[in-house]
Amino acid sequence: MPKVVYVRPDGTQRAVDVAVGQSVMRAAVTNGVPGIVGECGGNLSCATCHVWVRDEFVAAVGEPRDLEDDLLDLAVDERRAGSRLGCQIAMTEDLDGLTVDIPPQEA
Ligand code: FES
């Protein structure tokens, strides 16, 4: 099963097995990864699932769609090139090893 590595602001890492098709947010919530809340359940209305995708994975993960892009603009304190909402990243085999940083204000 592919893995996602979640990195907290203090550098602590947690690798989680994520089923193909499951979201980066859902896997974090299910496995108790601190800092990813997923308050709206993946309905693109809370941004409590914001993560920074590491540079080497940005191309593979792809760009946010319009609604996600708008929410990132409105609701995220520090938007970076790798900013994505974890609920909108569905796991694939190709994303095995995907590494995301959890922003400090959420951790
Ligand atoms: S869980 Fe609410 S926007 Fe992702």
Q: How would you describe this protein?
A:
- This protein is an alpha+beta fold.
- The protein has a single domain (3-106), classed as Ubiquitin-like (UB roll) (Roll).
- It has helices at residues 24-30, 55-61, 66-75; strands at residues 3-7, 13-17, 50-53, 83-85, 98-101.
- A five-stranded mixed sheet has the order 2-1-5-3-4.
- A hairpin with a 5-residue loop joins β1 (3-7) and β2 (13-17).
- The model has no long low-confidence stretch (mean pLDDT 96).
- The structure holds FE2/S2 (inorganic) cluster (FES).
- FE2/S2 (inorganic) cluster (FES) is lined by residues 25, 38-40, 42, 44-49, 85, 87.
- In terms of structural class, how would the helical and strand content be classed? alpha+beta
Please tell me how large the radius of gyration is.
12 Å
Outline: globular
Total strand segments: 5
Q: What would you say the CATH architecture is?
A: Roll
What is the CATH superfamily classification? Beta-grasp domain
Features:
107 residues; alpha+beta; Ubiquitin-like (UB roll); five-stranded mixed β-sheet; 22% helix; 20% strand; binds FE2/S2 (inorganic) cluster
